[in-house]
Amino acid sequence: MSAEFEMGQLMVILTVLFILAFSASAVFKRFGIPGLIGEILIGVLVAAQIGDWSVMEFLGIVRPVPGDPDSGNFYWNAIEILAQLGVVFLLFTVGLETKVKELTSVGRTALLVAVLGVILPFIAGYAVIMMWDGNLYHAMFMGAAMVATSVGITAQVIKDLNLMSASESRIIIGAAVIDDVLGLIVLTMVAGMARTGSIEIINVTGIIVISSLFVILLIVFCAKGVPRIAEKITAAIKRKEAEGRERKLKGILFPIALIVCLVLSSFAAQIGLAMIVGAFLAGMIFAEHAEEHGLIKKTNAITIFLLPFFFVYVGLHIDTESFTSELLLLAAVVIVLAMITKYVGCGAGTILGDRERKSSAHIVGIGMIPRGEVGIIVATLGVAITVNGSAAMSADLFAVVVMMSVVTTIIAPFMFSRVFRKKYGKGPAA
Amino acid sequence: MSAEFEMGQLMVILTVLFILAFSASAVFKRFGIPGLIGEILIGVLVAAQIGDWSVMEFLGIVRPVPGDPDSGNFYWNAIEILAQLGVVFLLFTVGLETKVKELTSVGRTALLVAVLGVILPFIAGYAVIMMWDGNLYHAMFMGAAMVATSVGITAQVIKDLNLMSASESRIIIGAAVIDDVLGLIVLTMVAGMARTGSIEIINVTGIIVISSLFVILLIVFCAKGVPRIAEKITAAIKRKEAEGRERKLKGILFPIALIVCLVLSSFAAQIGLAMIVGAFLAGMIFAEHAEEHGLIKKTNAITIFLLPFFFVYVGLHIDTESFTSELLLLAAVVIVLAMITKYVGCGAGTILGDRERKSSAHIVGIGMIPRGEVGIIVATLGVAITVNGSAAMSADLFAVVVMMSVVTTIIAPFMFSRVFRKKYGKGPAA
User: Fold this and answer.
1) Which of A233, A357, B225, B352 ranks highest by number of CB atoms within 10 Å?
2) A130, A45, A43: which is closest to A330 by C-alpha?
3) Mean pLDDT, chain A, as a whole number?
4) Which CATH number fits domain B2-424: 1.25.40.10, 3.20.20.140, 1.20.1530.20, 3.40.50.1820?
């Protein structure tokens, strides 16, 4: 019964986390603060050490030691699975609500936002660590970790505010997808240098070609291929309706949409992109007809169950024990730079892309700030690579990256929902 | 990136299993066979050894060795988590569609069905193994494993056939809940005897009191408490509607329903019952108003994603390598006895409960046959307990129980959908 016992214990853990997340989210929303901030803080609280004790330990969850992912236990992995599936379904829903024309119309601006939003944070991260300990590899990995944008966080706030169709929302989502491709390229170069001491041109070129092709081909498919296929399916449904058998055909659209989401998320992960990029593009395939077939409502139901585990999971990464006052100072500097460079880079990109969008620059700049789990993943890779007998990313700097990721993820949605509501002055409390 | 890598690999596994399950289910439905049979067979196929190779190994899934649950790997555990959540949400949906009056009106019959459906299979299992190897503990655990009914399987067929409101459906669901309580009592006695050599009266009495109280109190709460609470909430919603703020209140009903489902499932597992008993009772709390608030549709969406993993997971347990021809013979005898004794016991219970239900006896008897994962869990416990230096359940007999569980689970829905459709002659192909 050990397997059953473990499942029972896991259910208790999931129940406790879900109730805490739901309550915190409800309280925060009442005060006009995005609910996900409450959920992340629950994660931080559950992981917080009170003497030798923490709720996380009490529940039997063991967080992996940086550099040794196998050191986490079954319950940590289980929460990670539900968390990752949750954010996959969130981005799938966002895709379902994003029509391809809306995205391509802001394409030029999104590209500039992504490029500048990658260059400035990388330079800042690199420079700070070169001044801090002068280790080239530490500096490169800190730069790469500061590049990442986690669109999951901003997307949730946008959905809460009901502002998916605002032009800023589309720029942010588009830029986040491109950002992920650029981030992957940066990471490949940095990891390659740490492993072999030089950038392997063939490797990097391959990554650039494959990841760009994946995104571009899917967007072209959404724009050109999907309308034709949809026409044929609509005709088929009409024929079936004449025979009174249309329910059967409609019932399989949702599982098929799930399959497309799973396939593209898996594929994105296999070529090194974030799964959520695949999930978002999968959603966009069905966007034109998602509303009428109830796909959004159905995916939303799955998201309501799974997504709270994602935000709690982000918060669970904070390990208060590892902070010395010196390290806290470095973390503060990194956090401030991470926010300013993204804000300036992405804001400048918005204005360069379209001079009439000056009022949008502020919103886009803030919307791109949250690093979410992506920065943590980059740092994890750095800890796992050994250069000259020591890790390419020290445990201290890993703690700084986690701090930076979680704090930007908590602060940005708060600011974002304020400026967004200020401009549009509508939508329910986030 | 190992954690990310693992997640990427897991996504590939989930994608492959989901696609295979969906395709098999679609093909089987086309021929009028319940789709879940196709899904279980996919599990059997994926686990099947072809020489030294199997799809399961190729995907990197490692099944735990009987008696050592920790020997399975991360991917096996991940599938188990999604599988168990899937069947929890299935039974939650079944609860949402079961009004408490419909259940209590068949209470007497359900009780008799459950009692006779427990006694006959236990005696048969006990007798066969006493004749086979004469080991008392082997015999008791085989009896206990044959007692279990997995209502998840039958419930899915009932839902596919759209016959939730048929009296036979209510008898089966009610009997399955009582069956689980009785099965727990039998298992407690058997495990206690194996561990200490005697039945601990206090222990057994405690189990009887706690598990019966849990079920009875919840059913009374559904009948008496819920209508009053619902009245108050409806009044509150009406007040809010006058203020134009009703959407907010309605939006939280679904997460609250999820919380109740998680809490009662966890609690059921903690007191030793199956989680699905808690999930079913949780659903029943919301049954009166589930339709109007869209709870069924939302829970269904989650089930569509998670449930295929449950049926595949059941099939994955079959280990073809462990079968000798002698063992296959024993398995055949056990399977036939498992089916006949459940059928006769539950059929007789139906007729004893209500003499006018003779035509229902056939349907109820078949509906109670599938053992699903519950029999496997019982056998796992037996393998983990040591008596006089050897396991209370041998590895050979474990293989027989798995075979019995999977085969009854595959055959019964096929027969069940035939007899059910023969009587009611309607509903879509299952």
Assistant:
1) A357
2) A130
3) 86
4) 1.20.1530.20
